[in-house]
Design a protein that fits this description.
Strand content: 15-25%
Structural class: alpha/beta
Shape: globular
Bound molecules: pyridoxal-5'-phosphate
C-alpha cells in the first residue's frame, strides 16, 4: 500500500470511530482531501485510493490541475480566499465554494452562475475567532448575509464554514466549533430553511475529530493525507 492510501485508511477509520463514539452516523461526514500545492500525480493516487472530493485554495493552480486530472474525475471544492474577479473561474471549475464571505462576492458568483445556467452551491464562511489575518464574515453579519444569499436565484446556500486558529491541542479549537453551531442555530431561528444550513465545514488535519464531535459534516484534511506542504 502506498503512503497516501495508508493515510486515507487511517483517517477514514478515525472519522468512523469518532462519529460512532459520539452517536453520529459516519455517513453524515464527508472527507475533503486538501491538495493545495500538491502535484497531480499524488492527487491521482488519492483518487485511485477512493478519495472522491478534493479541495483547492488557489484558482490558477486549481484550474491547471483540474484540466489535467479531469473535471469529472472528482468532486471539486474551492476552499481558498476568493476574489470577485476570479468568481467566474470558481463557478466553472468547482462544485462547492466554501468561502463566500461578503454580499459583493455572493452577487458576483450569482451573476457568473446565471451566465453558465448553473445553480452554484456555496457555504458562508465565518471569521469565527475574529482574526485580522483571516477572511470570513463577522458573526454579527451572518444572519443578514445568509438571508441576502437566500434571495440570489443562482446560489444554493448549503451551510457554514470556519477555520479557527491553529492550536497544538485540538481541544482548544472546540469553543470555536461550538460558536459556528450557535451561528447556524441563529440563522435557522431567523427563518432560513434547514436545507440551507445542512452543512458545517469545519476541522482540519489536527482537529477534525473534535470538529466531528461538535457536528462537522465536512472535514478538510490536507497534511494528514498528503504530508506537509513545502
Ligand atoms: C490548507 C487548508 C486546510 C487543510 O489544512 P491541513 O492542516 O493541512 O489539514 C483546510 N482548510 C483550509 C481552508 C485550508 O486552507
Amino acid at each position: 500500500m502506498n503512503r497516501i492510501k495508508e493515510n486515507l485508511t487511517a483517517i477514514r477509520r478515525n472519522i468512523i470511530d469518532t462519529a460512532n463514539n459520539c452517536g453520529r452516523n459516519p455517513e453524515d461526514i464527508q472527507l475533503i482531501g486538501v491538495s493545495k500545492k500538491k502535484p497531480v500525480q499524488v492527487m491521482k493516487q488519492a483518487i485511485d485510493a477512493g478519495l472522491t472530493i478534493l479541495g483547492e485554495n488557489y484558482i490558477q493552480e486549481a484550474m491547471e490541475k483540474i484540466d489535467t486530472i479531469g473535471r469529472e474525475a472528482a468532486v471539486w471544492h474551492f476552499i481558498g480566499h476568493l476574489q470577485s474577479n476570479k468568481a467566474k473561474f470558481a463557478v466553472q471549475y468547482f462544485d462547492l465554494i466554501h468561502t463566500v464571505d461578503t454580499y459583493k462576492l455572493a452577487k458576483e458568483i450569482d451573476k457568473q452562475a446565471k451566465k453558465l445556467q448553473k445553480c452554484q452551491d456555496i457555504l458562508l464562511q465565518i471569521n469565527i475567532a475574529m482574526e485580522d489575518t483571516k477572511s470570513g464574515a463577522r458573526k454579527d453579519e451572518a444572519v443578514d448575509l445568509a438571508q441576502k444569499i437566500m434571495a440570489c436565484e443562482n446560489l444554493s446556500l448549503q451551510g457554514l464554514m470556519c477555520m479557527p486558529p491553529y492550536f497544538d491541542d485540538p481541544e482548544d479549537a472546540r469553543i470555536y466549533f461550538k460558536k459556528l453551531v450557535q451561528i447556524r442555530d441563529d440563522i435557522l431561528a431567523a427563518g432560513v430553511s434547514t436545507g440551507a444550513m445542512a452543512q458545517l465545514s469545519m476541522g482540519m488535519s489536527n482537529d477534525f475529530a473534535v470538529a466531528i464531535q461538535e457536528g462537522a459534516t465536512m472535514v478538510r484534511v490536507g497534511t494528514a493525507i498528503f504530508g506537509s506542504r513545502m
